[in-house]
């Protein structure tokens, strides 16, 4: 039965093919018959094109092309340069390598200077130091325009001050830190506890006890020691915190966004209030300092 179906299918296909061929031949004959009734200008449109002219190939085929026979190079080996006599290639230093070399030399020079400074570090032999290091208070981040009299007025409320030593550079400019020696150790302890973070002339000072002569292994910041962070580390920490905050707030919901906006608005208002308080306190301190300086000048004139 499968063979019968196959024969029927082949017969059906052949009949369809013959029908299509008959249709095509009939259509072609019909078109040819119709062209004899057309004018010459239209009959020219149905004329076949001339055959393509034969052109010989410009180059010989790759298969028929003659090849140069391959020969050995043993007879030319003696003409080459001896590897043992070849001079070394010149070393070209790139910009990155030059910068790395300069950075390494700078680090080595800095390490040598720090080592020499540590060898010469002797805070107990400083002639300008205070008498008793255990009664001495260290104040840093002082405004460069703050005078010794202003510093005395701010810190004498904690006790009797024996000596104030403000550090200056070789050109006479203040370095931004000072040492205050009190009459009693309890007064120094009270100033250490209460004066840290106090604002003087628009800047908050940092208070600590003297460590150079009270701790044997203590080194200043310029010799690789010190305490706390520097401006560079503060900036790097701030950038890192800002990046973490940005990553955390990428997928925050709108409700949390509203809460964050409310918090940021309240923080901006609190900052503006704190700025206004700081300005008023700064103006008050400036007025007080100018008044005290005027009083000191009048007192000096009266003494003369």
Please give a structural write-up.
- It is a single chain.
- The chain is an alpha+beta fold and 304 residues long.
- The protein has helices at 2-35, 40-43, 95-119, 148-155, 185-194, 231-248, 254-303; strands spanning 136-140, 161-168, 174-182, 199-200, 203-204, 206-209.
- It starts with a helix and ends with a helix.
- Residues 1-8 and 252-256 have low confidence and may be disordered.
Summarize the structure.
By secondary structure, this protein is α+β, with helices and mostly antiparallel strands. The chain contains 7 helices and 6 strands. The N and C termini lie far apart (143 Å).
Tell me the layout of helices and strands.
Layout: H1 2-35, H2 40-43, H3 95-119, E1 136-140, H4 148-155, E2 161-168, E3 174-182, H5 185-194, E4 199-200, E5 203-204, E6 206-209, H6 231-248, H7 254-303
| CATH homologous superfamily grouping of the domain at 123-218 | RRM (RNA recognition motif) domain
Calculate the mean pLDDT score and round it. Answer: 75
Weakly predicted, low-confidence segments: 1-8, 252-256
Number of strands: 6
Beta-strand percentage range: 5-15%
Number of separate helices? 7
Report the end-to-end length measured between terminal Cα atoms: 143 Å
What is the architecture of the domain at 123-218 at the second tier of CATH?
2-Layer Sandwich
Radius of gyration: 49 Å
What overall geometry do the principal axes of the alpha carbons give? elongated
* Share in helix: 40-55%
What is the H/E string? HHHEHEEHEEEHH
Biggest pleated-sheet summary: 4 strands, antiparallel
Biggest sheet: strand arrangement: 2-3-1-6
Helix/sheet category: alpha+beta
GO molecular function, one term: mRNA binding
Region (Disordered): 245-304
Biased composition (Basic and acidic residues): 275-304
Domain RRM: 135-212
């Amino acid at each position: 039965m499968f063979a019968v179906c196959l024969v029927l299918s082949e017969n059906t296909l052949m009949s369809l093919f013959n029908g299509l061929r008959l249709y095509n031949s009939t259509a072609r004959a019909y078109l040819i018959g119709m062209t004899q009734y057309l004018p010459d200008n239209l009959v020219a449109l149905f004329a076949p094109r001339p055959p393509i002219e034969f052109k010989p190939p410009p180059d010989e085929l790759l298969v028929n092309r003659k090849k140069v026979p391959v020969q050995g190079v043993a007879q030319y080996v003696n003409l080459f340069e001896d590897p043992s006599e070849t001079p070394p290639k010149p070393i070209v230093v790139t910009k990155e390598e030059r910068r790395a070399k300069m950075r390494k030399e700078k680090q080595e020079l800095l390490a040598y200077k720090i080592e020499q400074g540590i060898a010469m570090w002797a805070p107990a032999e400083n002639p300008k130091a205070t008498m008793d290091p255990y009664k001495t208070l260290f104040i840093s981040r002082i405004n460069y325009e703050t005078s010794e009299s202003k510093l005395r007025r701010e810190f004498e409320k904690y006790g009797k001050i024996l000596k104030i030593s403000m550090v200056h550079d070789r050109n006479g400019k203040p370095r931004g830190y000072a040492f205050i020696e009190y009459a009693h150790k309890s007064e120094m302890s009270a100033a250490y506890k209460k004066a840290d973070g106090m604002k003087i002339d628009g800047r908050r000072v940092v208070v600590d006890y003297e460590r150079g002569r009270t701790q044997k292994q203590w080194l200043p910041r310029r010799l690789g020691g010190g305490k706390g962070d520097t401006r560079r580390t503060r900036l790097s920490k701030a950038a890192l915190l800002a990046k973490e905050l940005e990553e955390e707030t990428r997928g925050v919901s709108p409700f949390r966004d509203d809460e964050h906006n409310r918090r940021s608005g309240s923080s901006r208002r609190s900052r503006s209030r704190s700025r206004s308080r700081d300005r008023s306190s700064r103006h008050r301190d400036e007025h007080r300092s100018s008044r005290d300086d005027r009083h000191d000048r009048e007192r000096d004139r009266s003494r003369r």
